[in-house]
Amino acid sequence: MAIEKVREYLAQYGLADRIREFDVSSATVDLAARALGCEPERIAKTLSFLVGDSAVLIVAAGDARVDNAKFKAQFHTKARMLTREEVPEKVGHAVGGVCPFAVKEGAEVYLDISLRRFETVFPACGSSNSAIELTLDELERSAAPRAWVDVCRGWA
């Protein structure tokens, strides 16, 4: 189960005991915000794209949307989201629980600057009913992103 892989992965950073599991779904930004009792923009959603043959994961604020022109400038290709079937195969988590932790080899993680306006954010933890509250430093350390990027709009 993906949440167990994430729990094991986050244990190396001393964060596993902070994973929260809910009796309700947290599979979308709105559902996660409701389950956590926080603003939707503080949900750190992980969006999955195909760049070449690899999965590229963009972790962005809940109110941010990928800007196609910015994405193309950053990755030199049109933004194409992975299909529901491709996500588990290329990322290692199912839709609704995609997160930047314990991803398959070859999947590249990027953090969008839309997250920088918050002290803490809430990414999922591999299941459609889990999340963890992390500072941006904790997120950066545990997600091991390739870089911070500016590929979103609608949040500023």
Offer a quick outline of the entry.
This protein is an alpha/beta fold. 26% of the residues lie in helices and 25% in strands.
Plain-language structure description:
The protein has helices spanning 2-11, 29-36, 68-75, 86-91, 136-143; strands spanning 20-21, 43-51, 54-61, 65-66, 108-112, 120-123, 130-131, 134-135, 147-149, 152-153. With 156 residues, it is an alpha/beta fold. Strands 8-6-2-3-5-9 form a 6-stranded mixed β-sheet. The model has no long low-confidence stretch (mean pLDDT 96). It is built from 5 helices and 10 strands, in the order H-E-H-E-E-E-H-H-E-E-E-E-H-E-E.
Descriptive key words:
25% strand; 10 strands; globular; two-stranded antiparallel ribbon
Q: Residue-averaged pLDDT, rounded?
A: 96
Based on the structure, what is the oligomeric state of the protein chains?
Answer: single chain
User: What is the makeup of the main sheet?
Assistant: 6 strands, mixed
**Low-pLDDT residue intervals, each spanning 5 or more residues:** none
Strand order of the largest sheet: 8-6-2-3-5-9
Distance, first to last CA: 36 Å
The H/E string reads HEHEEEHHEEEEHEE
* Rg: 14 Å
Proportion of residues in helical segments: 25-40%
Q: Describe the global form.
A: globular
Strand content: 25-35%
Structural class, from secondary structure content?
alpha/beta
Q: What is the count of DSSP helices, taking H or I runs of 4+ residues?
A: 5
Number of beta-strand segments: 10
